[in-house]
């Protein structure tokens, strides 16, 4: 009975800062009052830029202004119009361990708070999503999320919110966007409406390196990235990279697959020069590329 009462108390306390976000047709998603006048939610649930509304804990529905979306980390930020509610008490997701009990607290419709009780499935270090975003920690729940729980607060057994839930970053599993990621992305979205990411302006395909190349260049790996397209006027084209080159190193580190490119760009500042190594005509070729800012609607890396 004590456990049951404790869980209900956590849901009540956290629920005071959980709202329903009406940013798509039919079912609303959940959102969390992260700062005074600022709501964070799962970006994939926002399907329009105007006419977004938020249902508060007291039942009022107020207008919200879209500050920005980052689909890479699946964080969306809204600014409330005419409402100032207490933000959540956030904690450090790095304190979570597999098997820890957790509560997802949602407000998916006008009927009030909903809760889902489960455990943390797995934990890991910094993780790059398939959409190119960087999460400060990998936190997977033990199952999927029920409809309306994307954007919900994920609380530990002390009632601290470790982050927000999303169903968009891993197929068949619920994920937690850690609070430190939410903080970082929220800062950038409030400041400029989007998250800047590094960009080389290349399209690539992983290829196996010829044994002769591996032996000749004394490489410790056997795959690289074939450059099969170049963005016109992009950083790579300006640096003299050619279609047909095979990218093998970025900033002195092996470039075996697209994950290595993402990792290099994730740690690079826009405007910084990266030293790259290519195979061109069977010979090693080196040059430097100045990292650009990735266009917001461009499929090149």
TrEMBL record:
SUPFAM superfamilies per record: PDZ domain-like, Trypsin-like serine proteases
Name of this protein: S1C family serine protease
GO terms for biological process, alphabetical: protein quality control for misfolded or incompletely synthesized proteins
InterPro entries: PDZ, PDZ_sf, Peptidase_S1_PA, Peptidase_S1C
KW Cytoplasm (keyword) present: no
UniProtKB keywords: Hydrolase, Plasmid, Protease, Serine protease
GO molecular function: serine-type endopeptidase activity
Domain PDZ: 206-282
Family: Belongs to the peptidase S1C family.
Top-rank taxon, per record: Bacteria
GO-annotated cellular components: periplasmic space
């Amino acid at each position: 009975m004590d456990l049951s009462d404790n869980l209900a108390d956590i849901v009540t306390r956290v629920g005071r800062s959980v709202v329903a976000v009406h940013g798509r047709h039919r079912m609303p998603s959940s959102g969390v009052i992260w700062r005074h006048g600022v709501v964070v939610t799962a970006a994939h649930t926002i399907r329009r830029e105007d006419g977004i509304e938020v249902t508060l804990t007291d039942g009022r529905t107020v207008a919200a202004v879209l500050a920005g979306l980052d689909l890479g980390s699946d964080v969306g930020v809204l600014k409330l119009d005419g409402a100032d509610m207490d933000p959540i008490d956030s904690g450090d997701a790095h304190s979570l361990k597999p098997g820890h009990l957790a509560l997802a607290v949602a407000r998916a419709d006008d009927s009030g708070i909903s809760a889902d009780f489960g455990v943390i499935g797995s934990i890991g270090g910094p993780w790059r999503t398939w959409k190119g975003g960087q999460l400060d920690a990998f936190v997977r729940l033990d199952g999927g999320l029920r409809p309306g729980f994307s954007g919900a607060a994920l609380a530990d057994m002390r009632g601290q919110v470790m982050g927000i839930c999303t169903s968009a970053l891993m197929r068949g599993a619920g994920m937690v966007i850690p609070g430190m990621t939410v903080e970082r992305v929220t800062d950038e979205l409030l400041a400029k409406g989007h998250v800047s990411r590094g960009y080389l302006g290349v399209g690539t395909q992983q290829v196996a390196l010829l044994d002769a190349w591996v032996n000749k260049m004394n490489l410790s790996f056997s795959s690289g990235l074939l450059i099969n397209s170049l963005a016109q006027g992009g950083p790579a084209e300006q640096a003299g990279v050619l279609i047909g080159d095979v990218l093998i190193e970025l900033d002195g580190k092996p470039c075996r697959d697209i994950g290595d490119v993402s990792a290099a760009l994730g740690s690079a500042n826009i405007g910084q020069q990266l030293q790259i190594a290519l195979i061109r005509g069977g010979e090693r070729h080196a040059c430097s590329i100045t990292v650009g800012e990735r266009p917001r609607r461009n499929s090149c890396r």
